[in-house]
Design a protein that fits this description.
28% of the residues lie in helices and 33% in strands. The protein is an alpha+beta fold. The N and C termini lie far apart (45 Å).
Length: 174
C-alpha cells in the first residue's frame, strides 16, 4: 500500500497519539531503535498538546499515512529569524528500518525551507542517544556545541544536544 505525508488534522490525532506513545515509551517502543523507553517512562505527549500544534499557524505536524492509518509524524515549528525547529519525529516501531523516518525528515526540511522560508533548522536529542545523534549526522545535521536542559525535571538531570542543518545552499563559483 502506498504512503502519503500530509499535515495532520484534529481528526487524526487520537490514532496518531497512540503511534507516538508506542514509538517513544514502553515495551512496544523497544521493538524499534529510536525510543526513549530505557530513559523515560512518562507519557511523551497528549492529544491536547497535539491539538495545539495543529491549530498553530507557526507549526505543522506532518504525518505519514498508509491508507488511513498513521505510521509516524514530525513536528516543524517556525521560531523566527530564519530558524525552524524539528521535533517529535517518530515511526511505528514495527515499521522502523523501512526509510519511512528518512522520508519524514526530508519532508520536514522541505516544509521548513519552502513554507516557513527557514534558512536553518535545529533539533535537540537526549545526549545519551548517541546512536540517534549519529543517524542525524549521517543526514547532514551537525552538533552545534550547545547543550540544553531536558524540558521536564528528571533525577539525574538529562541534557539535550542541539543539532542544526543549513537549509539554503550557497552558490558555488565556477
Amino acid at each position: 500500500m502506498e504512503t502519503e505525508i500530509r499535515p495532520a488534522s484534529a481528526t487524526d490525532l487520537v490514532a496518531l497519539h497512540s503511534v507516538i506513545e508506542r514509538a517513544y515509551r514502553g515495551d512496544s517502543a523497544r521493538l524499534g531503535w529510536t525510543h526513549e523507553a530505557d530513559l523515560l517512562s512518562d507519557m511523551r505527549t497528549d492529544v491536547a498538546t497535539l491539538l495545539g500544534i495543529v491549530a498553530d499557524p507557526a507549526q505543522v505536524l506532518l504525518t505519514l499515512f498508509e491508507g488511513k492509518a498513521p505510521l509516524g509524524c514530525v513536528n516543524v515549528t517556525y521560531k523566527g529569524d530564519g530558524t525552524a525547529y524539528l521535533g517529535l519525529l517518530c515511526i511505528e516501531p514495527t515499521r522502523q528500518g523501512e526509510h519511512l523516518g528518512r522520508n519524514l525528515l526530508a519532508a520536514a526540511e522541505h516544509h521548513a525551507r519552502k513554507v516557513f522560508l527557514a534558512r536553518r533548522i535545529e533539533m535537540t536529542v537526549i545526549e545519551q542517544r548517541t546512536d540517534l545523534i549519529a543517524y542525524y549526522k549521517r543526514r547532514g545535521w551537525r552538533e552545534t556545541g550547545e547543550r540544553r536542559p531536558f524540558p521536564v525535571p528528571h533525577d539525574p538531570p538529562y541534557y539535550m544536544t542541539v543539532l542544526a542543518k543549513p537549509l539554503v545552499r550557497s552558490l558555488r563559483r565556477r
